[in-house]
Model the fold of this input.
Amino acid sequence: MRLALRELRRMPGRFFAVGTALMVIAVLVLVLGAILDGLIRGSTGVLRAQAGPLLVYDDEARQTLLRSRVDADLAEQVADVDGVADVRGLGVTNVTVDPPGETTAEDGLLGLVVVGAEGENRRLTPPGRGEAIADARILDEGFEVGDVVTLPGDVQVEIVATVRDATTNLAPSVWVDLDTWREVTVAVRPDAGLGEGVVQALNVVVEDGRDPLEVAAAIDEATGSTQTLDQEAAVAAIPGVSSQQTVFAAIIAATLVVAALVVALFFVLLTLERSGLYAVLKAIGASTGGLLGGLVVQAVVVAAGAAVGAALLTFGLLAVLPDAIPVELRAGRVAVALTGLLLMSALGSVFSLRRLVKVDPAEAIG
Amino acid sequence: MFLALRELRRAPWRFGLLAAAVGLLVYLVLFMQAILGSLIGAITGAIEHVDADVLVYSDTARGQLDASVLDPALVAEVSGSDGVAAAAPWSVQTYSAKAAADDLVDVAVFGHDLSGPGAPSTLAAGQRPSGPDQAIASAADAGDGFDVGDRVVIEPAGREIEVVGVAENLNYSVQPTLFVDLETFDALAAERTAGARFVPINAVAVTVDDGMAATEVVARLADSLGGVEVLTRDDAVAGIPGIDAIEQSFALILGLAFAVIGLVTGIFFLILTVQKRQPLTLLRAIGASPRDVVVPLLLQVLLLTGGGVLIGVALLALSAGAVPGELGIELQPGLVAATGTGTVALGLLAALAAVRRVLRIDPAAALDTNATGVSP
Done:
């Protein structure tokens, strides 16, 4: 073990090549993770921001906000269900606005998601009439807190605060009260069918100590025309979320297998080169396990160096990426990906065991 | 030459590991390209494969058909413009529908004028609708209850639409599509939204006069009409929001994957060459020319990267169909050929460092017992 670490210290150049290859592989894994998180978080923020654990859609909307319609009568029925503490309306509409300054878009217009909500949510409390809480990304598009945004239908709202991670459809969001949202939606889609009191879905807060899933079943039974999901299921039901997660997870896993193969390849070559030395070490009493331990330590140390380099490189790379690519590098993602790299590198180095076992101490004397 | 092959036979693990690593990377590259192709096709197909030359959107839609809202009266204005052969309303709405099973699926319903522009141009089976409640469906969904003769029930009112034809590459927003006549489209909208003030149209589909360039008509319409964005069909496809982000994201990932292929191949052959310097020096000393030692090296690179490509293609063939959701992947010969050629070329390029090392071998060093075999 001591010998392995000393070799790393005295001859780092020998491990530079495999370290570089591992670093690029780690960058690939981190970029894949950042794109996945960027896509998912940019699509699910509105639902994750809801304070209540349940979301009620109309049962023909297939858990899609844009198609779901819940009227005031239905909301009242839901509110009367045993275990329901509070019912809050929710609606989401895509619009375009003309921002005051330069925008990153070619056509000079800015795509926004207008979110109509009521009651206190996890990260924000929807503002009063004429006010809006905007996604922090709107600041990059020329808006500032205090500015007035003119929404479709000539509805004017003043940005009173900003919030992070509370959007959907990968566009900046503007949170307004439900009446303002309805006014804007009818202006954008006169055929949207939004009468007085109609929302797209309900966020339900359950009474303390009640099982949300039991309350969800009770709501659907009482109304006969709703589909109630817990927040996790509602997020997973957003079109594309599950497919993206499965496909990206498979690509990340396959990339980590490549890392193991690369480490295996390198250490097999290294073991081959050192077989004479290993024969001598075995002749003076070193065990195969001890020699393998040295290889594993070297692989993990090289992978750790590559991981640090990859993390720094990825931060730099993501900072210069065009805005069109939705990326978000989370500490948890970095930790999991780089731990995976270390584990796969350790696994790859074990590949040299066969060759180590074959080293004959007798070769040391000729 | 025979030395190169014999070395491969004698060290199957060493070379096998490289071929496996390259194979897995080629698989990833092919898989991601296939997903990209099918994703973009599934998002844009319905706009790309209709018989309109030009599409007119509202100017606030930002190239998004669903977000475009136009007054139906605009169609007459467009029809009367210079260079326009025909113009017709063109709209899309997403509905929940029951096709083969009782489960609801999302369906993009396109309303188009049966005798005007905006109809699918890739009809593969069946015929075009001749009246209400008939549709052309996307052929990719034929197996899911959207084949000729199938009936699709559109909720909430339960209107039955008969599929009378299917057309290739006709999906939209990764959903099945149904192209119906305008009467059916308006009826569906009225059934969903009782009391709507009117049913707006999303776009105007335009065919241009014979001999006219679509871009010229685009310029004329943009000049003469107010509050609209006029696009050629190709520009409308390219401008669909999200396409840019998807293409750039995948380009970045593919670039990194190719970089790993080059690095791994280059490093492997460089280390191998350094380890073989003594036998190579000996070969040079007994008369082997530089060509005699370089060609086997390049042959090994060719065989291993080529083998890697075959492994990658085999893995893709095995995993085709295992992709979740609406995105199918399939082996596309052109894509496989381009990726395979690129991988082998990249391997050869990456092996240049090893080739350089081989060419620097000094045959005279064979006489020196401490020889490195490499001239300073």
Remarks:
- The longest strand of chain B covers residues 84-98.
- The mean pLDDT of chain B is 86.
- DSSP finds eleven helices and ten strands in chain B.
